[in-house]
Every structure is written in C-alpha cells, then in structure tokens.
C-alpha cells in the first residue's frame, strides 16, 4: 500500500510542471496582450508614427533606406522610404479599402493601385492595427489554433497558427516566459504560387506604457536576401489626417512642344471691295 501511494505521489510530482506549463489558447493570447501593455492601454492610441531604417542585404551587397511608418484609426496605414534621393510610398486607405503605392524609381511618379495579392496583405495589416492579429480575430473571420510548444534558439515558445479569412497562414512563436512574439512564419499565395517567409522579432522596449519591437528581420525561406527593419523611435497620438492616406490623383500632364507654341499671328482678311456700279449715264 505504501509503495502504491509513493508511486502516485511521484507521478503527481512529475506531472505538476507539465500541468503548470499547459495553457489554453485564450490564456496564451491574454498573456500576449498583457505583455504588450494591455488592451486598455492600446485602445488609448489613436495614431502612431515609427521612424527608422530598412537594411536590405543580398549576396551582391546591402543598402539602407530611411523609413517612416504611420498608423491612424480606423484602418489607415502608410510607409514612406527613401532610396537614391527618391521617396517611395505604400499605403492603405481604410475608408475606401484602397491599397496604393508610388514607386518613382522606374520613372513612375503617379500613384497606382497595388496588385490584388499585395493589396490583401496591406488590408490585413490595417485590420490588425496596433492591437495585433489576436484581438478580434473571430469577428474578422480569421481562425487561431494553439499548436502546442516548441523551441526557438533553445527557449520554450508557444506556437499559434493564424488562418486568415483569405486562406493565408501565419504561425507565431510566442516566448513562454515573456509572452512576446520572437518569430513569425507566413504562407501566402502570390500570383498563383505559394510563398513562404519568416521574420525574427526582437529588441523589445517600453514606450509610453506599451512594449514594442525595435527589430524585425525578414526574408523568404530559402532565399539569401533579407530585409531588416530597425525602429529608432515610436510616437503615439500624433496629429494625422485621413487625407494623408488617400490615393492622390495623377499629376497634370506637361504640355507638348506643339501645345506650348503660341498661335501664329495672321493678318485678318480684308473685306472684298464691292463692285462698282456700271449703270450708264443718261445721254443728253
């Protein structure tokens, strides 16, 4: 009897750490939101501005581009980046659900609507807002599953699989101690082909009561090219107008050389002389 009791006690002691580590999906999401500062604090933010740089690297070399990102409720987002003295823009107008871009590097200066696949990604980012993808996911038609635990660089993480309404799949790896995201893997369909990418997230710092990532290193799986976003400054509740996110109309076309020519000065035609009367004079 004593031996059986000892075995039961031993089994309970072994299982206690496992029970303590097991959490439900709702608990992991709640811990994640709390780790970022809490939903109540997030709701006080109506707009945000992030300033930093994008470091793009490949086997051929690397280059840097200053970036500025804007977010405004409800659903407005915008990013501006500068390369070789030219500024590109990617934006999403939350009121008209329009994703647009200005890419002047090939000589195009007018704004153009983004292709459907890129526009879908922009709309998802806009819908996530400052709160992230786990707040209100069901109302958006998305689905989240807890896939259990894993390890990232030796640390325990929770794996959460987010399936978007569109079918895109994102897997988040949430640190089991800090409950902050440390990695994200994404599968999207782009122009009919499945594209997998990964992002390493880190360098978290507190900014006005919110815990924000200052480093995001991303790239396609199997590709040597990487894009590392380094944030230098976050600002909250900055004055932003919706008009800043609206797709601008095309610039007026320059006049052609022919249109620039002044109309030639012509001499007005003289009225024709009236024919003189040819009536004979009366004879004497």
What does this molecule look like?
By secondary structure, the protein is α+β, with helices and mostly antiparallel strands. It has one domain (22-247): outer membrane lipoprotein receptor (LolB), chain A. The protein has helices at 2-21, 25-35, 39-43, 116-128, 257-260; strands at residues 47-58, 61-72, 76-83, 86-93, 98-102, 112-113, 143-152, 155-163, 169-175, 181-190, 193-207, 210-220, 226-236. Strands 6-5-4-3-2-1-13-12-11-10-9-8-7 form a 13-stranded antiparallel sheet, covered by helices on one side. The chain is globular and about 80 Å long. It starts with a helix and ends in a 24-residue tail after the last helix.
Write the SSE topology.
Blueprint (H helix, E strand, L loop, with lengths): L1 H20 L3 H11 L3 H5 L3 E12 L2 E12 L3 E8 L2 E8 L4 E5 L9 E2 L2 H13 L14 E10 L2 E9 L5 E7 L5 E10 L2 E15 L2 E11 L5 E11 L20 H4 L24
Antiparallel strand pairs: 1-2, 1-13, 2-3, 3-4, 4-5, 5-6, 7-8, 8-9, 9-10, 10-11, 11-12, 12-13
In short:
With 284 residues, the protein is an alpha+beta fold.
Round the Cα radius of gyration to an integer and report it: 32 Å
Strand order of the largest sheet: 6-5-4-3-2-1-13-12-11-10-9-8-7
Q: Which outline best applies?
A: globular
Give the name of the CATH superfamily: Lipoprotein localisation LolA/LolB/LppX
Q: What is the CATH C-level name?
A: Mainly Beta
Helix content: 10-25%
Keywords: Signal
Protein name: Outer membrane lipoprotein-sorting protein
Signal peptide: 1-20
Region (Disordered): 243-284
């Amino acid at each position: 009897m004593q031996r059986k009791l000892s075995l039961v006690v031993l089994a309970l002691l072994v299982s206690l750490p496992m029970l303590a580590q097991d959490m439900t999906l709702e608990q992991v999401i709640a811990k994640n939101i709390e780790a970022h500062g809490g939903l109540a604090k997030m709701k006080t933010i109506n707009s945000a501005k992030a300033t930093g740089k994008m470091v793009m690297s490949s086997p051929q070399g690397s280059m840097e581009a200053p970036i500025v990102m804007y977010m405004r409720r409800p659903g407005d987002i915008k990013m501006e980046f500068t390369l070789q003295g030219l500024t590109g823009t990617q934006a999403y107008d939350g009121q008209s659900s329009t994703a647009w871009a200005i890419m002047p590097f090939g000589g195009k200066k007018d704004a153009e609507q983004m292709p459907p696949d890129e526009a879908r990604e922009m709309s998802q980012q806009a819908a996530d807002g400052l709160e992230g993808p786990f707040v209100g996911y069901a109302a958006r038609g998305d689905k989240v599953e807890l896939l259990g635990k894993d390890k990232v660089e030796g640390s325990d993480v929770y794996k959460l699989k987010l399936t978007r309404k569109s079918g895109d799949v994102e897997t988040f790896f949430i640190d089991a101690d800090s409950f902050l995201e440390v990695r994200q893997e994404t599968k999207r369909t782009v122009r009919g082909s499945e594209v997998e990418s990964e992002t390493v997230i880190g360098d978290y710092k507190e900014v006005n009561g919110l815990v924000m990532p200052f480093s995001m290193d991303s790239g396609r799986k199997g590709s040597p090219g990487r894009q590392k976003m380094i944030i230098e400054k976050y600002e909250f509740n900055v004055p932003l107008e919706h008009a800043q996110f609206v797709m601008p109309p095309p610039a007026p076309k320059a006049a052609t050389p022919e249109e620039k020519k002044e109309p030639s000065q012509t001499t007005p035609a003289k009225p024709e002389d009236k024919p003189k009367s040819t009536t004979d004079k009366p004879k004497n």
